[in-house]
Specification:
single chain, alpha/beta, five-stranded parallel beta sheet
């Protein structure tokens, strides 16, 4: 599985910790920026990431080969920007229960987090939960997702 990751300046340092963790788990990681903690605009990196993921999505694909992680100060801006792109289901999660539920029930393909909201230890657990949880493929969840996809 490939993981695409991006951040603005507010999420830059947490992004680096997540990248190191994911590479340690053996994932292919693609970093779309930012490249420093100098002030920048989060929509730039949300767009780079979602364009890359949307290119890997087909209409009936429920088993993603590529997932995304976006980190900014709160995660709110990134999730709003990401969800503007067709085929993207971005979820703002700061706990493992939400990360598990959004993959299992909503088949989210982008995890958003806020570096000013969550510490690195919990963030890595949320990342692992998000990545390791498969979509249930239950008929009710497929039906509900199709209502807004």
């Amino acid at each position: 599985m490939k993981i695409i990751i991006g951040s603005d300046h507010g999420g830059y340092h947490l992004k680096l910790e997540i990248i190191e963790h994911l590479k340690g788990r053996g994932f292919e990681v693609v970093d779309v920026g930012s490249d420093s903690d100098e002030s920048t605009d989060y929509p730039i990196y949300a767009k780079k990431l979602t364009d890359a993921i949307a290119g890997d999505i087909t209409a009936n694909n429920v088993d993603y080969e590529t997932l995304g992680i976006l980190v900014c100060g709160t995660g709110i801006g990134m999730s709003m920007a990401a969800n503007k792109v067709e085929g993207i289901r971005a979820a703002l999660c700061h706990d493992t229960f939400s990360a598990e539920a959004t993959r299992e029930h909503n088949n989210a393909n982008v995890l958003c987090m806020g570096a000013r909201v969550i510490g690195p230890g919990l963030a890595l657990k949320v990342v692992d939960t998000f990545i390791d949880t498969p979509f249930s493929k239950d008929e009710r969840h497929v039906r509900r997702i199709s209502m807004y996809s």
